[in-house]
């Protein structure tokens, strides 16, 4: 499940033409945190997913649509 969420974030991020640093800057995280999340190495909190969805300007549930 972690990997699926991570892949979805990568998909949405790349659609915007952003790299990991761009997303990190927009949601107030560091690039390494985004990398770990995208690679499925950490369990994201609901709040982290909310912040990422807000930064990507997508509905929260879009992150969980796979």
TrEMBL record:
Q: Which Pfam families match?
A: HTH_3 (PF01381)
InterPro entries attached to this UniProt entry: Cro/C1-type_HTH, Lambda_DNA-bd_dom_sf, TransReg_Diox_bact_type
Provenance organism: Mesonia maritima
The source's superkingdom equals Bacteria
Write down what this protein is called: Transcriptional regulator with XRE-family HTH domain
* Domain HTH cro/C1-type positions: 9-63
**Zinc among keywords:** no
The record's annotation in PROSITE patterns points to: HTH_CROC1
Q: Which SMART domains match?
A: HTH_XRE (SM00530)
The UniProt entry, under SUPFAM superfamilies, shows: lambda repressor-like DNA-binding domains
Signal peptide from the UniProt entry: none
| Keywords linked to the UniProt accession | DNA-binding, Transcription, Transcription regulation
